[in-house]
């Protein structure tokens, strides 16, 4: 059966994969090697040096391309290394229009590294395409979207932003870390580049840091491959193996993340001590219709604010949680809780942070795949 005809749940397991040519190993071996024997200068089997290419990484890159409905996958040492490669497509004087409510590390990379090299970043709310158009100038080369946004769970209409990008002839990149291709495939909606922190749901077990890019266009793939090889932040063979193994169960994990996420969101929504719950599955969510049309579910990421919204109360709740581990990161099988203002988003100035709703009392949950009754009981004892 042709690769293209496979459904998503089969692609996670078989997409871009063939049994190993040497011994038929079903799982691609971990080629823990830096170099490859040549019979004569240039006489090799497609691999010369592992920064340029490594067979375990190739297996992962093929899988990534397959699950995101792309053509070319590139695996990096971290999500930020993948973003770094995308911004290196640009030069001094170029401008980027980016989501204002985005991963703190992406903001730090844009502002504190790339602005030094003369690239300008414009952070705007992206629920309304007019705001995006107003921020585009003759120098804009890239639109950077994260949806659902982190940690406010706003949903950005990828198809609508893609239309704006096409009209102005700029590239559209989507950070698909939160949704994963189980929930949405941005390339199908008109994006040029999909990016992942594979550290999160793709790896899924909180045991590896890695990143990914997927594109359809050959020229763009060649440029990104050139940067990946020239800058060198590649995904190592062991890490590639772990992400590949994670991807094989992505669909079953995501199904459970969605179920548990919904149960926890509805529990919090009905809790008398909770002021506001941010989860795109609520009909009252301002972008619910967009979420419904572009996503196959609502995921396991939820943010909430308690009544009275004090910093101290938020800290007490996250400290009292037992089954939810207080930790950075997300997307693993175990449930995590975080306090964005002091953790993931601490590198964004308070003023900037609060403009997009990241108040001191905000708590973010990455709902794992434990039994949902146990998760709710833990929240019950922590919130009181
Ligand atoms: C974690 C994360 C990143 C950064 O990825 P790393 O693997 O930590 O470098 C980027 N975007 C989002 C949405 C993330 O959650």
UniProtKB/TrEMBL annotation:
State its cofactor: pyridoxal 5'-phosphate
Top-level EC class: transferase
GO biological process terms held by the UniProt record: cysteine biosynthetic process via cystathionine; transsulfuration
Q: Which GO terms describe its molecular function?
A: cystathionine gamma-lyase activity; cystathionine gamma-synthase activity; pyridoxal phosphate binding
Please give the GO cellular component terms listed in this UniProt entry: cytoplasm
Q: What is its EC number?
A: 2.5.1.48
Keywords, in A-Z order: Pyridoxal phosphate, Transferase
List of residues that carry N6-(pyridoxal phosphate)lysine: 200
| InterPro entries the record matches | Cys/Met-Metab_PyrdxlP-dep_enz (IPR000277), Cys_met_metab_PP (IPR054542), PyrdxlP-dep_Trfase (IPR015424), PyrdxlP-dep_Trfase_major (IPR015421), PyrdxlP-dep_Trfase_small (IPR015422)
NCBIfam families, per the entry:
PRK07811.1
The similarity comment for this entry is:
Belongs to the trans-sulfuration enzymes family.
State the PANTHER family in the record. CYSTATHIONINE GAMMA-LYASE (PTHR11808:SF15), TRANS-SULFURATION ENZYME FAMILY MEMBER (PTHR11808)
Full protein name: Cystathionine gamma-synthase
This protein's species is Zobellia galactanivorans (strain DSM 12802 / CCUG 47099 / CIP 106680 / NCIMB 13871 / Dsij)
Source lineage: Bacteria, Pseudomonadati, Bacteroidota, Flavobacteriia, Flavobacteriales
């Amino acid at each position: 059966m042709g690769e293209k005809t496979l459904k998503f749940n089969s692609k996670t397991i078989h997409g871009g994969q063939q049994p190993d040519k040497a011994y038929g190993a079903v799982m691609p071996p971990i080629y823990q090697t830096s170099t490859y024997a040549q019979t004569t200068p240039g006489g090799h089997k497609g691999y010369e040096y592992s920064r340029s290419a490594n067979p375990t990484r190739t297996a992962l890159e093929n899988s990534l391309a397959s699950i995101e409905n792309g053509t070319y996958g590139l695996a990096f040492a971290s999500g930020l290394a993948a973003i770094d490669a995308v911004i290196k497509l640009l030069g001094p004087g170029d401008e980027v229009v980016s989501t204002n409510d985005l991963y703190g590390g992406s903001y730090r990379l844009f502002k504190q590294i790339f602005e030094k090299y003369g690239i300008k970043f414009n952070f705007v709310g992206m629920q309304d395409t007019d705001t995006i158009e107003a921020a585009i100038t003759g120098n804009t080369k890239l639109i950077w979207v994260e949806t659902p946004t982190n940690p406010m769970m706003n949903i950005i209409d990828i198809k609508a932003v893609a239309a704006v990008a096409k009209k102005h002839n700029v590239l559209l990149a989507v950070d698909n870390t939160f949704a994963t291709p189980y929930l949405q495939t941005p390339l199908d909606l008109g994006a040029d580049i999909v990016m992942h922190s594979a550290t999160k749901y793709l790896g899924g077990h909180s045991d590896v840091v890695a990143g990914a890019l997927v594109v359809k266009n050959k020229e763009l793939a060649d440029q990104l491959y050139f940067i990946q090889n020239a800058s060198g932040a590649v995904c190592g063979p062991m890490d590639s193996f772990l992400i590949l193994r994670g991807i094989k169960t992505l669909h079953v994990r995501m199904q459970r993340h969605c179920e548990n996420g919904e149960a926890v969101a509805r529990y919090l929504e009905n809790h008398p001590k909770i002021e506001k719950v941010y989860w795109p599955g609520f009909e009252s969510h301002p972008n619910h219709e967009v979420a419904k049309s572009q996503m196959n579910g609502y995921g396991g990421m939820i943010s909430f604010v308690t009544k009275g919204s004090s910093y101290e109360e938020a800290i007490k709740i996250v400290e009292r949680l037992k089954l939810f581990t207080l930790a950075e990161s997300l997307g693993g099988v175990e449930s995590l809780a975080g306090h964005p203002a002091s953790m993931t988003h601490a590198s964004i100035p308070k003023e900037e942070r609060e403009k997009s709703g990241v108040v001191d009392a905000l708590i973010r949950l990455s709902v794992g795949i434990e039994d949902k009754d146990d998760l709710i009981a833990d929240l019950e004892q922590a919130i009181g």
